[in-house]
Amino acid sequence: MKVLVATEKAFAPVAIKLIREVTDAAGYQLALLENYKxxxxxxxxxxxxxxxxxxxxxxxxxxxDAAKKLRIxxxxxxxxDNLDLPACTAHKVVAMxxxxxxxxxxxxxxxxxxxxxxRGGFGGKSGTELRGKTMGxxxxxxxxxxxxxxAKGFGMNIYAFDPFVNEDAMIKSEVKACKSAEELYSxxxxxxxxxxxxxxxxxxxxxxxxxTMPKNAVLVNTARKEVINEDGLLKIFEERPDFRYLSxxxxxxxxxxxEKYKGRFIFTAKKMGAQTEEANINAGVxxxxxIVDYFKTGNEKxxxxx
Length: 306
Ligand code: 3PG
Prior knowledge:
alpha/beta; Rossmann fold; 7-stranded parallel beta sheet; 12 strands; elongated
């Protein structure tokens, strides 16, 4: 069996070492395609792979056509919007993710951006504190739960909206449940996004929600840039000089921000949320184990395609 790790954004070396221990123990061969620049490299590398581990790498029909032997692809991470699921199914390839494995890293990055912004980018001027402020979690999945834990430590008042999560789970985490996104945004100075990017959520966070946020509003996006309606975001920035946007990846409208709104945003150049050794180890090793388990026992617990 050949397992290919194809990552345009490489794992930490320690994670590769531990992934290799899993594949070695199973008697599988591990191949690495890291930091590749062009899809042609991926098409060549995947040709004889039985299994593949990816991150945000696009797994398209073209990739699957080139992967003649492929039986399973595991997205080492939570969001699988980069996998063409119908194409995986059509190619008889099982697609999986590794939910929860990199969630703490993402939550920590959200707080790092919030703290840096609250202290004015360490520029020497007086800033603000998080204690006593309202934190709104837009979705209460794995990242949302870590966010709540950290926010509690900072003494924030925490709210969440998630139609897929039972209110009891929120109450257990000392989080107040909101009945709608509108309620969440209108109550919270800080709103942190933890929704996936899909047909329902793309461009769903726009002007109507953002305009209701309290004074000195801060929108934190460690989810996906696609969930934001950027026209609405720019409109709110024009109207409200108190509004801030902190995003793990640059929005398409970054040039406008740079020209007009200096000091009111933070954008990471490359998605950094899951870029820690710990998250790389957790997600990478989980992916390798899921592959071995699938081949040896047929376990499809984390399958995301039909
Ligand atoms: C995820 O969905 O797990 C995160 O967005 C991390 O993505 P990455 O593996 O590309 O850093």
